[in-house]
Specification:
Largest sheet: none
Strand content: under 5%
Mean pLDDT: 80
Low-confidence stretches: 78-90
Shape: rod-shaped
Radius of gyration: 27 Å
């Protein structure tokens, strides 16, 4: 037996539903959130007697709203990034901060390299120069350049992975 009827929940939680949608899906306008709520209620009403078997209608409504919002955003071609555990939508500003933080960690990792390895890494990876160009310019054998680059990449990977997988 359900705790509350859909009408009671709709009336008492409508504002909370809008806040939930707008905070969880920051690209939704006020009108979009209202449309999603109304469409979700209509879907539940169309279930007819099957809706009576829903034990916790409020919880069911929040789950339905989340799913409807994801569907809506896909249809309107918004990019939806989800986490398998929580289906959270990543805020674009948060993603930008994380990207900048990772760039900073990579820059720091490059700065930790010895000068010879740093030079080879920067010239080949960031400047797009070929090993042949560097061999001709520096007189260093190809095998030595490849070895230095390999060591540089391993050190950078180690530094970045320590950052990414550090215990919180």
């Amino acid at each position: 037996m359900p705790d509350n009827t859909l009408a009671e929940i709709f009336e008492s939680e409508y504002t909370n539903f809008k806040h939930y949608l707008k905070s969880r899906f920051n690209r939704l306008s006020e009108y979009d959130a209202e449309d999603i709520i109304q469409l979700t209620v209509l879907k539940i009403l169309r279930k007819g007697d099957d809706a009576l078997s829903i034990r916790n209608m409020t919880s069911y409504m929040y789950s339905s709203l989340r799913n409807s919002a994801i569907d809506y955003m896909k249809k309107t071609k918004y990019e939806v990034l989800t986490d398998e555990d929580s289906d959270a939508v990543v805020d674009a500003a948060e993603a930008e901060v994380l990207k900048n933080e990772l760039k900073m960690i990579i820059k720091q990792a490059i700065d930790l390299l010895d000068e010879k390895s740093k030079y080879i890494f920067i010239e080949t990876e960031l400047m797009g120069r070929s090993y042949k160009e560097l061999c001709d310019e520096t007189g260093i054998k190809l095998g030595t350049l490849l070895s230095r680059k390999s060591r540089a990449v391993k050190k950078i990977k180690k530094t970045v992975s320590e950052y990414l997988f550090k215990e919180a």
